[in-house]
Amino acid sequence: MAMGETDRLIEVIRGRNAKTVGLQFPVGLRTKAVELAQEIEAKAGVTCLVSADPSFGACDVADMPADLIVHLGHAPMPHLRYRNVFFYDLPGPPLASMAFLDAAETLLPRRVGLLTTTQYRGWLPAIRDYLVTKGHEIRIGEPDRRLAYAGQLLGCDYYTATEIEKDVDGYLYVGTGDFHPLGVAILVPGKPVIIADPERGTARDLVEVRDRVLRQRHAAIARAHDAETFGIIVSKKIGQERMDLARDLKALAEGHGRRANIFMMDLVSPPLLEGYRVDAWVNTACPRIAIEDISQYKQPVLTPQEFEIVLGDRDWNDYVFDEIRA
Amino acid sequence: MAMGETDRLIEVIRGRNAKTVGLQFPVGLRTKAVELAQEIEAKAGVTCLVSADPSFGACDVADMPADLIVHLGHAPMPHLRYRNVFFYDLPGPPLASMAFLDAAETLLPRRVGLLTTTQYRGWLPAIRDYLVTKGHEIRIGEPDRRLAYAGQLLGCDYYTATEIEKDVDGYLYVGTGDFHPLGVAILVPGKPVIIADPERGTARDLVEVRDRVLRQRHAAIARAHDAETFGIIVSKKIGQERMDLARDLKALAEGHGRRANIFMMDLVSPPLLEGYRVDAWVNTACPRIAIEDISQYKQPVLTPQEFEIVLGDRDWNDYVFDEIRA
């Protein structure tokens, strides 16, 4: 980390009179962990505890015996009551070239909704201005209570997209992965979702990924059709826990003559679900689990809405992507 | 689970007026989880939450939003203050044959210390009597505050062995794996440790395993000799957390001009430690981690005592196996 970048953080730590500081890094910043801990200890006179549990978002804040938890790389979820957590936004990369935008621009309709993740949120005004000069009308959706910024997209919250649905002909997502904009492509049918990837410098339409994922979801629902026993997964993470929903789904299953038990866990991963005698899983934790890691699980893993389809309480034509709403 | 076996458990749940019951199973009992949860829900009128985080022992009790946690398959650690936890001992297998004991008996010295794990503890009186008829003098060590039963061995507590060290010429461990008795073979040099394996019906001397592990430990210490930056692992689990020790080790390292940072985590596993820029790990969590999974970690993983050897504060001739003592 360059000298000076952490000065604001050191000031906060001093201001809190913290003696022990917990540090929580997303996986991509693990390489910075020791360096930052050493710098903070030297400059702020504290002891750092690095959280080595994986961190996937502001939904998942470390519980450590520290006076202050510094959570790096994610924006807070405003509706959650965090205790002694300071969200430290590392400065995002500079917007060095518009090449990836030029690549995207040819794929865009006239009226465009702009979407991105925390990392690139500082780019949105410049991108809006640039696309306006190209003749586009740009909308950036206001956040709901789980989102920190206008235009911010989470893999479990597409409010900034659906909020402006009626005012746009399509979306531009600035970012690197498929998962965040995938939900938009499924929730808002008929409107193109274009990814402008600043790391690769390329752009692409998400339609093929969307269609492939929908085929996979259809197959998972079909595989679970005759399941007798369901395991309903509930996360222990502060921003992922949906116990009330899980209890409702269990009651729903039992009302349909199926068996269902609730499974609670912190990190959801394929080996941890092996051995249990269930025919299918229903995931109420991070929606990404059911979608992205599907091939690694032995049994089908359904979203709550897909479970309703299996039980006959929802039609496939009313398929919606799972979201966690405040 | 056979009918009737769970009656005592149902009674306890009813007696506590629990509405929500958390169930925690060791990995080997996952196949029973759904069946038991269904039976408890039907008979006790409660909702069960199955903990799907892996459970390795009474050091590691699930934190769940339940009125009562039922922890299966492990004996409690008496010194820990558990909240609302009922330890439910599944009945162990019957002692169907003495063949594995006959195989062991030929390897045993005259005065023998008997050791086992929770699962087989009911067999100890019969085994003692049998070996006495063969001419042996048998001792069964009293437990310390982390152990529930006489003769009980944990992978992190060998008190029932060392307590009777002066009164025996060797040990008989009744059980299936190498790890539990391995610590005894290292902590009590010069006295044979014989495993009588009731599942395989065979017996063996642990001396070769002990020597191989000691060579591995020597190699790990050598690999860490010139390490500049150490990561000191602290567990979040109630019976594994040794933060004070970790802070002492960090100070010790810094006194020797090495860098050290504390890493806190729940489940310790190789992929979770990848990416951090440390040259070696020091593990204060479950001692088994450094010993059994050594080949899966990129960097050497040392026990606290091995770390002292690396720093020059302990001689290899004073090598001791790591234990967690109350």
- How much helicity do the residues of chain A have? 25-40%
Element-level helix/strand string of chain A: HEHEEEHEHEHEHEEHEHEEHEH
Please give the order of strands in the largest beta sheet of chain A.
6-5-7-8-9
**Helical run tally of chain A:** 10
Distance between the termini of chain A: 35 Å
Oligomer: homodimer
Q: Overall pLDDT of chain A, averaged?
A: 94
The radius of gyration computed from the alpha-carbon positions of chain A, rounded to a whole number of angstroms, is 21 Å
Question: What share of residues are in beta strands of chain A?
Answer: 15-25%
Main pleated sheet of chain A = 5 strands, mixed
Helix vs. strand class of chain A = alpha/beta
The backbone outline of chain A, from C-alpha atoms, is flat
Spans where pLDDT lies below 50 across 5 or more residues of chain A: none
Largest interface: A-B, 46 and 46 residues
Number of beta strands of chain A: 13
Features:
326 residues; 29% helix; 10 helices; four-stranded parallel β-sheet; homodimer; 19% strand; five-stranded mixed β-sheet; alpha/beta
Furnish the topology, listing elements before pairings:
The structure is a homodimer of 326-residue chains.
Chain A: H1 7-15, E1 20-24, H2 30-44, E2 47-51, E3 68-72, E4 85-88, H3 99-105, E5 111-116, H4 124-133, E6 137-139, H5 159-162, E7 170-174, H6 179-187, E8 193-197, E9 202-205, H7 207-223, E10 229-235, H8 243-255, E11 259-265, E12 280-283, H9 288-292, E13 301-302, H10 304-310
Parallel strand pairs in A: 1-2, 1-3, 3-4, 5-6, 5-7, 7-8, 10-11, 10-12, 12-13
Antiparallel strand pairs in A: 8-9
